[in-house]
Amino acid sequence: MDSNHDDQFQQDLQCAMEDSRSESSTPRQSSTESGSSQPKNSFLIECAQLERERLAQLKRPHSEENQEELTSLRHGRQNISTSCSHTDKRTHTPFTSASSSKADGELCPAANLHSMPRQDSKPTFRFTEALGPKSQIMFAIISSYSTSVSWIYKFFDPCMPVIMVAQPDLSGQARIKNILPNWVMMVPFLHNGHGCQHMKFMLIFYETGRLCVAISTANLIDYDWRDIENMSGPFILLHQIAVWLQDIPPHPYCSPHDPKFTDDFPSIMQYVLHAANVCDALTNMLTHEHPNLPLQSISDLCSKWDRSKVKVKLIPSIAGKHEGWHRVAQSGHPRLMKTLRDFGPQTGKGKATKELSVECQGSSIGTYSTQWLNVFYYSVCW
Asked: What is the mean pLDDT of residues 284-289?
């Protein structure tokens, strides 16, 4: 962007902010009345409003936010029958807009309120299609940096057990809490309260025995899936998020996992769940109301599901102090460096070698120091 365009952008942004401040005192025209007279900077006004909402959401204490949502949910549940029988026996595929092959380890774009059809004519899907019919889900483990309990709750049967990994408070202390019937909230430990729980994933266990692993770019909150754009590409138009999906069928027999393998998919997923303190929440559920969960221990991930088709390497982001190369290389950009070295990608050999271009994004770019960027660059361009 040249200086003229930059100056114009700043002028438009300032105008949008002024219009936004006066918006509350000015009646808004309906879409039929505005027509072509709609201000050309309306998009910037919407962006400014979304940014204010996002910042307000982050500033609110998570305990206060969750308590308000839980109070509302408990009030709403007074009119819900205590019966937990499943009457919906539909057997349709969990992907209606995209075929079931989409779950075979592929990064899938998800449509939101502002998305447009893909230029390559391939389908997109929505959050409900990634989950599938709630009547077929037996158990779920969900994790997000920011979670709207009242929003995510409606996507699951009230009688289905759910473990939710949430953001710790300023103390950084791990804790477990029964927030709703069949719902347990777990927050991981953060040393001296530093860092954050930023991982966004879901493990969905179905009645058929299969397991679906979903890793998303969006939080489990309504406006992330409705408005946010954080994925782009030559065939993917603006205003889309992305979810990596992997369907894992049950193993026909319990296959012992070789303890020598500590770098494969189930081992790293197991490491993530331990770091998120899911073990305590799982033990709580098994001991009390749900003794027959499909996952009886975290180690079952390495033996009860057929991982032969999983081809990816997980790169988790776990806050804390990591000592010893074995632990250091299991998280963050050192894990990225090790993964790239293991895969051994090349842009060519000798004179045919091409210059490598790396595109990345981050949610806290203002806090990146030059030292950190240099280390990250070394990890990426090993």
From this structure: 93
Smallest CA-to-CA distance from 185 within 270, 276, 272 is with 276
- pLDDT digit string (tens) for 93-138? 333 344 343 467 777 777 777 766 666 666 677 788 888 889 999 9
Rg value, the chain, Cα: 23
Q: Please write down the HEC assignment for all residues of the chain.
A: CCHHHHHHHHHHHHHHHHHHHCHHHCCCCCHHHHHHHCCCCHHHHHHHHHHHHHHHHHHCCHHHHHHHHHHHHHHHHHHCCCCCCCCCCCCCCCCCCCCHHHHEEEEEEEECCCCCCCCCCCCCECHHHHHCCHHHEEEEEEECCCECHHHHHCCCCCCCCEEEECCCCCCCCCEEEEEECCEEEEECCCHHHCCCCCCCEEEEEECCCCEEEEEECCCECHHHHHCCCCEEECCEEEEEEEEEEEEECECCCCCCCCCCCCCCHHHHHHHHHHHCCHHHHHHHHHHCCCCCCCCCCHHHHHCCECCCCCCCCCCCCCCCCCCCHHHHCCCHHHHHHHHHHHHCCCCCCHHHCCCCCCCCCCCCHHHCCHHHHHHHHHHHCC
Q: Among 279, 143, 134, which residue's Cα sits nearest to residue 213?
A: 143
Whether the per-residue pLDDT at 304 is higher than 60: the answer is yes
> Tokens 């201000």 correspond to what residue?
39
Rounded Cα gap, residues 173 and 183, in angstroms: 20
Residues with Cβ within 8 Å of 36's Cβ and at least 6 positions away in sequence, in order, are none
Average confidence score pLDDT of the chain? 76
Dihedral of CA atoms 187, 192, 193, 194 in degrees, nearest 10, equals -120
pLDDT of 311? 87
The pTM for the full model equals 0.72
Tell me what pLDDT residue 236 has.
Answer: 41
